[in-house]
Amino acid sequence: MKYIDEYRDPARAHALLDRIRQVARHDWTIMEVCGGQTHSILRNGIDQLLPSSIQLVHGPGCPVCVTPLETIDRALAIAAMPETILVSFGDMLRVPGSGKDLFMARSEGADVRIVFSPLEALQIARDNPEKEVVFLAVGFETTASANAMAVYQAAREGLGNFSELVSQVMVPPAMRAILSSPDNRVQAFLAAGHVCAIMGWEEYEPVAEEFDVPIVPAGFEPVDLLDAILKTVELLEAGNSGVLNAYGRVVSREGNPQARKVMNEVFEVADRPWRGIGVIPASGLVLCEQYACFDAEKRFDVGHIAPQESPLCKSGEVLQGHLKPSDCPAFGRECTPQTPLGATMVSSEGACAAYYRYHRNPKKQCN
Amino acid sequence: MCLAIPGKVVAVTDENGLKMGTVDINGSLTKACLEYVPDIQLGQYTIVHAGFALKIIDEEEAAESLKLWDELLGN
Amino acid sequence: MQLSCPSPILQHETVQMAHGAGGRLSQELTARVFMPHLNNPVLDQLDDQARFDAEPGRIAFTTDTYVVTPVFFPGGNIGDLAVNGTVNDLCVGGAVPRYLSAGFVLEEGLPLVDLERIVRSMAEAARKAGVVIACGDTKVVQKGQCDRIFINTSGVGFIPPGRDVSCRNLLPGDAVLLSGTIGDHGMAILTTREGLSFQSRIQSDSAALNGMIADVLQAAPNLHAMRDPTRGGVAATLNELAASSSVGIELDEGVLPVREEVRGAAELLGIDPLTVANEGKVLLVVPAAEADASIAVLRAHEHGSEAAIIGEVVDEHPGMVVIRTSLGSRRILDMPLGEQLPRIC
Questions:
Q1: Is C330 in Cβ contact with A62 (below 8 Å)?
Q2: Neighbours of C296 (CB within 10 A)
Q3: Is the whole model's pTM more than 0.90, yes or no?
Q4: What is the rounded distance in angstroms from the CA atom of residue B5 to the CA atom of residue C207?
Q5: CA A36 – CA A31 distance, rounded (Å)
Q6: Given its phi and psi angles, is residue A139 left (phi above 0), alpha (psi -120 to 50 degrees) or beta?
Q7: Which of A85, A93, A90, A94 is nearest to A123 (CA)?
């Protein structure tokens, strides 16, 4: 596969690993803020292959994991209403709400549909004019660009039966929150490559400067990740900070201007609660006043929602890198992928699920 | 987050006023919105996420990186 | 009952409730849609039960119900899927498949041309596999009570005396073989369902494997176990085999055969081909000494041209399947959790 296989080449990966071993003289803690990168690291065993002096810590880069419990409950309430079609990405179907998840709601008769793109949700709205079609618009900035276009287009077409239940979050505020925490051990970040494809890297420069850390936009394939880790370690060893792009074929400093324009037109920044972490100021996107009529939160009165988290769940600590999933007392016992207590165990790229799937046993030495 | 897979643009159309395209991903054809890559040409590569093409892949940058890594390999 | 016209003009266009009521319309349906395609000496008796002679050895008996949507998909339909699936369930146990039953639940309003198309392909699949559809039944339910058509096929076969093929027979040192590319069927269904976003070129691999398996059993008489990796894919099946025999299995990621289009679609949807259903593939576990001979026989067959040795049975980590990645690291290949959903994260 072009632009994939070259970046999975074992020879290149091992050459980069050798170089990392030569360069790394001290212990370093690096965080990746992207569930897709977490997934790739664990799936390819990159954490096993790195020298033990390099600690990879997994951040809250899973928009599924950080969607507030209240939003799930709200989606469930809307799905249960007659004449509504709740449309969602597949990722969200098994995330536990206070009592059940969207999958269970579907089996109880709610019209819940899975799509691959928000544009498919628009088509469902066109095809079902007598129903209310609500799209669960979750994601980081990458997906926000797609979700924004859906609303923009709905407005252009006058699709009155379409609305979005928005739970969009942004990466830089999360990085700031982590770096500002008194328990912080993170010394450098791998930035999410596809978020940066849209947003560019200019917004990370002030963060890197304020906290004096390296921030390296990285791709997702093993060679891309190892290259980014090498660049990060080189910066750390030299005592340097700042942003250094390791995903040049897709990431530029200003990102994608067309996408940012539509996002700025449709969304505005707001404070946002992150499930398991709490409110991070200016970390979310909501529909702005001009597009408020497409806001499902305003359109549907779902009554009082009293979200109930499991008291055993430690997702928040895992998401901030304070706790390894395997160190959580409930891990593998009360909390498994079949019986998840929190979103980090449900989402296929939640750190807990990734640990459970790939590293349930003590790590074995690799060849 | 953000599974975005590289593929080649093999057709461009218009649907509901949006620039749309067909992207060939290793032989599987998928539809993608091209509004965010308005200058993309047939035969160019892009990454597709949630039905949207996000960026034109910079083939020169890619070739440059591969060259550097291969020099590393040679050492 | 002999009919001269292969495609008779039918009085109704669609299935009616009365077609399942056992009266004149039921007889008409049987005569005009089922019998012209399925007729054979056993079925033609039209008794309440099929009767045939037993063969030496043990009886193998299986059942499966098919509810796939969409009913017609690239590479097949629910009918030939049902026949091939049940034939395969028999032959992976080392049985020679002989007789199938076919029970139909039809949704009121199902176009009769669709039903006939399905029945015709079942007949063709049975003929190709050398099995006989010996008995059947049809019921009709009201519109909305089933999704167009559900088919149950049960199957009977005979295991020759002395043959013992079982998921409990795996031994450390055995080779694990896969007869071909993974994920074709499941991805064909998924990309067809996605509809709007995909122009699927992926074809289901639905096929009856009894001919190929009979050949392998000649070359590898000490074959230990076989399973067809249907729901849950290779990941589920290998986990089941490892658990049944209390052994570990190790796989080589680099040698797994996957079609390019399947890879592309799976990457885009965030789905692991190892967890996707196959309907024309078999996993075989053979003593190491018989691995090369088995591969040669598989590759010589039309359904096994991409066969590969994908791993081995070990005594470490019993019950668990571990993948050696192409980078040299290791990870657990877990039992998949239910339906694979497309993801964007």
A1: no
A2: 13
A3: yes
A4: 31
A5: 13
A6: left
A7: A85
d(CA B57, CA C310): 34
Domains contained in chain A, CATH given: 5-63+171-243 (3.40.50.11750), 64-168+255-299 (3.40.50.11740), 315-358 (no CATH)
Q: Round to whole Å and give the CA distance between C277 and C268.
A: 17
Tally of residues, chain A = 367
B28 neighbourhood in chain C, CB within 8 Å: 191, 198, 200-202, 261-262, 264-265, 268
Residues of C in contact with A94 (CB under 8 A): 341
For residue B59 the two structure tokens come to 């083939």
Q: Write the pLDDT tens digit of every residue in A62-81.
A: 888 889 989 999 999 999 99
Q: Which residues of A191-220 are buried (b: 16+ CB within 10 A; e: fewer)?
A: bbbbbbbbbbbebbeebbeebebbbbbbbb
Find the closest chain B residue to C188 by CA distance: B28
Q: How many residues does the structure list for chain C?
A: 345
Number of domains present in the structure of chain C: 2
The token pair at A330 is: 């409930």
Distance from CA of A44 to the nearest CA of C (A): 6
Mutate to test the interface with B, among C199, C258, C268 (most CBs of B within 10 A): C268
Domain that holds residue C142: 17-159
How far is CA C120 from each of CA C33, C125, C151, rounded to the nearest angstrom?
9, 9, 14
What confidence tens digit (pLDDT) does each residue in A29-38 have? Answer: 999 988 889 8
Indicate the class that CATH gives domain B5-74.
Answer: mainly beta
- In angstroms, rounded to a whole number, what is the distance separating the alpha carbons of residues C257 and C263? 10
